[in-house]
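Session log. Operator J.P. requested a structure for one protein chain; no other inputs attached. Running the standard single-chain path with token output.
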Amino acid sequence: MYKRIKIIYLLGLLFVSVFALSCMDDLAGNGKAHLVVRLTDAPGDYQQVNVDIQDVQVNTEDDSTGWISLEINEGIYDLHTLTNGLDTLLGETDLPVGRISQIRLILGDNNTVMVDSMMYDLKAPSAQHSGLKVQVHADLVEGNEYEVLLDFDAARSVHKTGSGKYMLKPVIRATVEQTGGVEDNGAIMGVVNPAASNPAVHVIQDFDTVSTMTDSTGSFFVGELTPGTYRVVFVPVAGFVGQELTGIDVMAGDTTDVGTVVLNPL
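Structure written below.
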């Protein structure tokens, strides 16, 4: 029985491999590359941030006329379900080889934010007209597949006005990787104790900051980091003392585990 299951499993892997290779063969020789766009989140201090994504477009001409829509999974995405290394597929398409300059998200009207268990409308007027534009600037080579990861920083994107309304002014970081190629970026992970300190985690290199929050167990993960040396700053809720780690090295294709970080009470 075990041998039979093993044979079926290996045949399944063979089928998937042949299918993937045949897809890449379809791209080779036709002047196209395959582009996949995924969404993740660097969360803020909100229970939910729901974004109504109706269209994802990529610009291949670097002007107002070069927009191409992807085949997407349109709908409402709660950004807070896409944290600590989790992401979701937004859409994909085959594109002519060459340079892509921008990606933009077209949002619908059903954007909301939950604060203290109350749901509020989240206004994003520009996103429903010209869209949320993200700079990419990547070169696509014939026959290759590329993945664009859009890291939506909810903490810096949601703003409360003086009148009590919530506005969406998106801060989105984009990284591009060739699928199946050598991983160019790295990551940082760790655990904060106690989990009740619920800190924001800021990973800083020069003037570039990537942020996240710990989950219910105190764990955190920040990916798609350019190799180099970083500071990691922990900003907890009231009642705890923050902390900063320095000299954290990140290498391509590797995850740096900073271990357990203890935040002491005041």
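Operator note: The chain has two domains: 33-178, 186-262.
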